[in-house]
Amino acid sequence: GENVEQHPSTLSVQEGDSAVIKCTYSDSASNYFPWYKQELGKGPQLIIDIRSNVGEKKDQRIAVTLNKTAKHFSLHITETQPEDSAVYFCAAFANTGTASKLTFGTGTRLQVTL
Amino acid sequence: DTEVTQTPKHLVMGMTNKKSLKCEQHMGHRAMYWYKQKAKKPPELMFVYSYEKLSINESVPSRFSPECPNSSLLNLHLHALQPEDSALYLCASSQESLTSGTSYEQYFGPGTRLTVT
Q1: CB within 8 Å of chain A, chain B residues 44-63
Q2: What is the rounded average pLDDT for all residues in chain A?
Q3: Given this model, what pLDDT does residue A99 score?
Q4: Between the CA of residue A57 and those of A31, A76, B72, what are the distances in Å?
Q5: CA nearest A103: which of A114, A90, A112, A113?
């Protein structure tokens, strides 16, 4: 099955700096890669995603890049703000043939300090 | 609107109790999911319903029993749980296609924090 590795496990940046979180996946058939933000006591919130026919996608301060050859994708957050502090999960879609199934990375705890 | 609602928010139950978790979405999604999340870990898939039929059971113990009464509702019935089952239980939904390989965004609810005493 699919295996997703995520690094770093914790990341501390100063407000206004950029943050980068990296993930690798194992199944070359995976074709959809979402990123979720989870704040304390809440469910994961989809913040951005990318499909395998696209190399980069941007939404305001958030961008995701995908390298299919190397099987890795990254989340970039620019001009970080304290409200960006949360746990971020990457995921890869594995085709089961009957329903969509996501495999999650282990998570990155991002702390944005003033 | 991408809202998935879950009730209750918190649940404390003894090992001999029977309780149910409820999930609802009104986005017209035809796939619904139950995940279990332990502290500082990613969500782990438990069950997937596609067009109201159970399509994936990730070898979950029988003390967890899912039910999909209609396309908007998903229940998780709990019976004779163990303390190690204490976790955040998340429901999610997505559009679904019968075409294999199609992927759609999954939207999560806020979860039910379950404590088994």
Answers
A1: 45, 48, 50, 55-56
A2: 93
A3: 55
A4: 15, 10, 31
A5: A90
